[in-house]
Amino acid sequence: MSLQHQTEEEVKLAALAISFNIRLRSADMPVPMQERALRHARALLDAAAHRRPNPTLLARSLKKEFDSVYGPAWHCVAGKSFGSFVTHSPGGFVYFSVDSFSFLLFKTEVHVLPH
Asked: How many Cβ atoms sit within 10 Å of the Cβ of residue 20?
């Protein structure tokens, strides 16, 4: 998408990503939700700067943040190397890298099964 067609929100998100050393790889998510994900992931890695970050704890924290703010059911994969192929709810997907860590965050619908 050219800069001429980007909204002010998208331009601000791009500036935030640059300032946080984040590469946004793919997204199907409203810009404010993307911003929350980027800020939360950056804060998690900054808090772990004095030790080796634990990918499982990073994924759990980002998942719980989104479950808490946007409702269930969010899923998160975090790490330096992984493959994935997922189905997500519309408007509920973002894939980005912070420094050398990648984050895949996506939402699925929850269906209660009858007993």
From this structure: 18
Residue 40: how many other CB atoms lie within 10 Å:
19
From CA 75, how far away is CA 67, in angstroms rounded? 9
Edge-to-edge strand list for the sheet holding 93-98: 22-28, 93-98, 101-107, 74-79
Neighbours of 92 (CB within 10 A): 20
Per-residue pLDDT of the chain (115 residues; tens, 9 = 90+): 455 678 999 999 999 999 999 999 999 999 999 999 999 999 999 998 888 899 999 999 999 999 999 999 999 999 999 999 999 999 999 999 999 999 999 999 987 788 7
Integer distance in angstroms from the first to the last C-alpha of the chain? 48
pTM for this one? Answer: 0.90
For 81, other C-beta atoms within 10 Å of its C-beta total: 7
Query: Are residues 17 and 23 in contact, defined by beta-carbon separation less than 8 angstroms?
Result: yes
